[in-house]
């Protein structure tokens, strides 16, 4: 049965470069989680769940070998299998890393053009694909790489952050435009972490206010939305030019976009008196924060990522679903829901900052491909809701 509503999962395919024993090392989640050997089995599990949409992408750093040079061997095999199995991919083209030949960094101003060429080459090679996430979680990619010093360029400054943000957003928009040039009916499902910063006391209010505007910058730039004076000054003070900013106003393709919101219990933060940020846990939850993003951008919405570890996962799934369903009943055009990812992950308990090879038990299946309780619960949820969800055809048909 084909569902209008997009129930999805994903194959976790992050590949940032981190420092291990003083040397740079690529951390490839598809390799760590056994997907390169077991991809056929993984796709069968997707089908077994009753899931028709899969967030999935080739390992960008292995596929884009140089300007105009691509190795499509793994991609040809896997995407042909998805096509034959009737699984619709939401294609994830850049997931937290760039190829070594580009410096494995988001600081390279030449990268957006090369990435757009890669995106166009992909779209030309697989003409049946219509759903894309060109650059995954720009907020996280820029912050972890250029503000926190954890991944890729491993820098810690506002100048580095603004440079990474600029390049990531520009790559995202240029890729969308490049794909549209060969696939005019393509739809772009952003996958962006939805964040909120709570102030611990009145003295923290100004900084929390700043951070609650800063969280919107990746989508503001991607969608060409006018930003306030405080954010404009922040960008210009840290290396973006007026021309750089104007480019986003002139080049966005928001009319072809679905706003994907990712929500985890780590997405809400507490701002302390010394400007330190601590985890607050879930205070507002998916409903409140997604509504803030929807009110700002007025685009169709998809819940593109959520998970938690085994002991809380079934309860978390039910709660996320209840939040999403209530949003839908309250008039927000919600097109889909995603439990991310299909299998457990490795070292995401420390945000891939360290290589401990520790299993993070957040999958629908464990790494032996045995179903977890949350897998059973999600399978049941899809069976129950798949045929009756009020996905107004008016909101969805233009996108599929």
Automatic annotation (TrEMBL):
<dbReference type="InterPro" id="IPR051923">
    <property type="entry name" value="Glycosyl_Hydrolase_39"/>
</dbReference>
<dbReference type="InterPro" id="IPR017853">
    <property type="entry name" value="GH"/>
</dbReference>
<protein>
    <submittedName>
        <fullName>Glycoside hydrolase</fullName>
    </submittedName>
</protein>
<dbReference type="Pfam" id="PF00232">
    <property type="entry name" value="Glyco_hydro_1"/>
</dbReference>
<keyword id="KW-0378">Hydrolase</keyword>
<dbReference type="InterPro" id="IPR001360">
    <property type="entry name" value="Glyco_hydro_1"/>
</dbReference>
<dbReference type="GO" id="GO:0004553">
    <property type="term" value="F:hydrolase activity, hydrolyzing O-glycosyl compounds"/>
</dbReference>
<dbReference type="GO" id="GO:0005975">
    <property type="term" value="P:carbohydrate metabolic process"/>
</dbReference>
